Amino acid sequence: MSKFSTLRRGIYAVWLREIMRSFRDRGQLIGGVSRPIIWLLILGIGLNPYFRGEIYGEVRFVIPFTYLQFLFPAVIVLNIMYTSILFAVSMIWDREFGFLREVLVSPMPRWAVLFGKILGGSTVATMHGLLVLILARFADVTLGWDQVALALVLMFLLSFGLTSFGVILASRVRSFEGFGVFSNTIILPLYFCSSSVFPLDPSLTRTQAAATYPEWLTLLVQINPITYAVDAMRGALISYSQFDPLLGPGIIAAGAVLFFAIALVDFQRQ
Questions:
Q1: Which run of H or E residues covers position 169?
Q2: Where are the domains of the chain?
Q3: What is the rounded CA–CA span in Å between residue 128 and residue 266?
Q4: What SS3 state is found at 105?
Q5: What value does the mean pLDDT take over residues 59-75?
Q6: Would you give the distance in Å from CA 195 to the centre of its chain?
Q7: Quick check: 123 and 163 in contact, CB under 8 A?
């Protein structure tokens, strides 16, 4: 058997283990289904009447979409964020109970072990994003096959980058409790400061935006990488972008490479 074939089988074995473990976790599956339904039902429908203005008796939306349509791509990103980052808990579990030590003494190179684990987490997170995508008709979003294909590519790249980021966190936080608290303090601020639940009014210039919104909030939105992930997903699904359409996919791809490289450096020290 060739070295490449052995390496491929090893990566596949690690990937399959992560997939099977995720499927056995009913709580993770329930969360992946209930989270988007709650967000779309409560926020999407509940706040939709306030996502508009009335000009000379004519009702107009802030942007040419209902709030449910505007929120839909952002909920996909939210589901991916939770699944990807919290997937790294498995790293702490494997480290605490000795499985990671047993894998690391195998002939497989460490980069292959890490790649298999991150690939497994990315696959699960992409599936959780796909669970939201199935609700497109409910959100009154009509999709073509080209849009679905582009969205799946973006979802996988985002999942890969965020899973790598979760591994970086798990390398620095040694306890389950600490990781849970620390990860939530990262997920929610990143999400809410990404123009995910409210639009930056596209009719405003940079000076007007600074006068309308607090300067610190505008700055946080602009430097937040999740802002561009949400914007890329909106561009793919509802053809609406607040930034350059190529900027979001570029940042997602660059983040995936960068975070995997940092995760690999940390993993080599295990």
A1: helix 145-172
A2: 3-268
A3: 27
A4: coil
A5: 75
A6: 14
A7: no
